[in-house]
Design goal:
By secondary structure, the chain is an alpha/beta fold. It has a domain at 47-162: Glutaredoxin (3-Layer(aba) Sandwich), CATH 3.40.30. The chain has helices at residues 53-71, 84-94, 109-113, 152-162, and strands spanning 23-27, 30-33, 42-46, 75-80, 100-102, 117-118, 123-124, 126-131, 137-143. The strands form 3 sheets. A 5-stranded mixed β-sheet has the order 5-4-3-8-9. Strands 1-2 form a two-stranded antiparallel sheet. Strand 6 (117-118) and strand 7 form a beta hairpin. The chain is globular. Residues 1-8 have low confidence and may be disordered.
């Protein structure tokens, strides 16, 4: 469930703005809140839909880069308007090791609060947000929906925010 006190953004939120708080299902019986991740950098990857070719490639890439994100102390979450059962099947098939959150009901409420909901399709933009440990957006990017934005922008934002990542094995 999203925060009902947050009104829809006018376009994607930008660096320097507070990240809207939310709590969404990560499994059929578990919720994950942005506040649960406070104190560490958070990467939010909004994507249009499980099972689409570009989304599968993007989430697979992030899964491969996950150890690098962790070296910065960052946690990654994927968010789409698909339901928890669809996410569970997609994550299992792709062997993903990060939470996928269901912005399903009310549909797209969190995507709307970040300014990245696509009303005409009922999905989110392909959008990335890097949030610092205090809940402030430090970098955001909206990619064309048909293009995988890769991980370079995320890594550059983490490097600018955190500095040198911890040595492998230091975590």
């Amino acid at each position: 469930m999203s925060n009902p006190n947050v009104s829809p953004a006018a376009g994607p939120l930008k660096a320097g703005q507070s990240a809207p708080v939310f709590s969404l299902p990560s499994t059929p019986d578990q919720m994950l809140s942005l506040s649960d991740l406070r104190g560490n950098p958070v990467i939010i990857a909004f994507y249009p839909a499980d099972w689409s070719p570009v989304c599968g490639d993007q989430m697979g890439l992030y899964n491969g880069v996950l150890p690098e994100f962790h070296r910065y102390g960052a946690q990654l979450v994927g968010i789409s308007t698909d339901g928890v059962w669809c996410h569970a099947a997609f994550a299992s098939a792709r062997k993903l090791h990060f939470p996928l959150l269901a912005d399903f009901e009310p549909k797209g409420a969190v995507a709307r609060s970040y300014g990245v909901y696509r009303d005409h399709e009922g999905t989110s933009e392909r959008a990335l947000f890097v949030i610092d440990g205090e809940g402030v957006i430090r970098w955001s990017y909206v990619s064309p929906v048909g293009l995988n934005p890769g991980a370079d922008g995320i890594l550059n934002a983490l490097d600018a925010m955190v500095g040198q990542p911890q040595a492998a094995g230091a975590l």
